Amino acid sequence: MTDAEDTAEAWADRGLYVPDEEGMADGALSSTLMRGLAVLGCFTVTDGSLSNSEIARRINLGRPTVSRLCKTLVHLGYLRKDDRGAFRLAPGLLALTHPVLAATPWRHRVAGPMREIADMYDGNVALAVLSEDRFVHIQTAGDPLNFPHVPEMGITGPLHRSAGGRALLSLLSSQALYDKLAELRARHPEEFARHAAHTRASIERCWREGFCVSYGEWHHNIFVASAPLGRSEDGLLVALTCALPRYRTRAEMVEADLGPRLAGLADSLRMTGLFHAPEIGRPLSSQTAE
């Protein structure tokens, strides 16, 4: 069994995380806004249509409260009703994402190299950025057909059990890393403990080799390699990932070919000045890393 001192648990012990409940108690957070966003968060690719009662059950609120929230979101153009009276996400939400994407013009300078990697390995490549306790894809390349998981823009995933997430964690400085791991452990205690050893090993591998890998931890039928790119000029932490279907991929190829190629591409992109990654290639100081 892996000693807890050799896992991300030890790093999380050095971090500080203030739960949302404490912010709610001192009035720093708006409960109404959080509930409205929770309603929007109920919808997924497989659950695109939800009734009032289904939403109420998922976020553990009374149906009258959910009804008011949904009517407000419909009025704002963020929800719409379908033919059976259930709610769906509305196109108005896309208008919220446009300023975010427009503020990241550097995405387009990475699109060409991403397409080359996607074509070379017949996989799907994505740019992921860190957002709270997850990553978000903001640019993708590849053929979505005949692929078990399509990395569309806007897809989110876990930081602590994915190659892309761990690559992003490797970009954090010592105390910021500890604090983020403490947050992840507080929000996802069982998952964090189960993946703590691999999380730390992957972060350290990014420091040493410039990439990390994941074999089915997030999606069981996907092998993924990811390289941390660095911090963009607008302050986002960015990682480059390439996902391949398990049925036509060998781990040896991911380790010896794909991973090092992504790390080399990340080095080249940093040389252009698009990204700055002071932690890449060197671990935390001996005082904090031991």
**DSSP summary: helix tally:** 12
Q: Count the strands?
A: 9
The string of secondary-structure elements, in order, is HHHHHEEHHEEEHHHEEEHEH
Report the biggest beta sheet as strand number plus sense, adding barrel if it closes: 7 strands, antiparallel
Decide which structural class fits the backbone: alpha+beta
Q: Runs with pLDDT <50, length 5+?
A: 280-290
* Rg, alpha carbons: 20 Å
Give the fraction of residues assigned to helices: 40-55%
Query: What is the overall silhouette?
Result: globular
Mean pLDDT: 88
Q: Could you give the distance between the termini?
A: 19 Å
Q: Strand portion, in percent?
A: 15-25%
Structure description:
With 290 residues, the protein is of the alpha+beta class. The chain contains 12 helices and 9 strands. The chain has helices spanning 8-13, 20-25, 31-41, 52-59, 63-76, 92-102, 106-121, 163-169, 174-187, 189-209, 251-271, 286-289; strands at 79-81, 87-89, 124-131, 134-141, 156-158, 212-215, 222-232, 237-245, 275-276. A hairpin with a 6-residue loop joins strand 6 (212-215) and strand 7 (222-232).
Task: Note the main attributes of this structure.
290 residues; alpha+beta; 7-stranded antiparallel sheet; two-stranded antiparallel ribbon; 9 strands; globular
Short summary of the structure?
By secondary structure, the chain is α+β, with helices and mostly antiparallel strands. Helices cover about 50% and strands about 20% of the residues. The protein is globular.
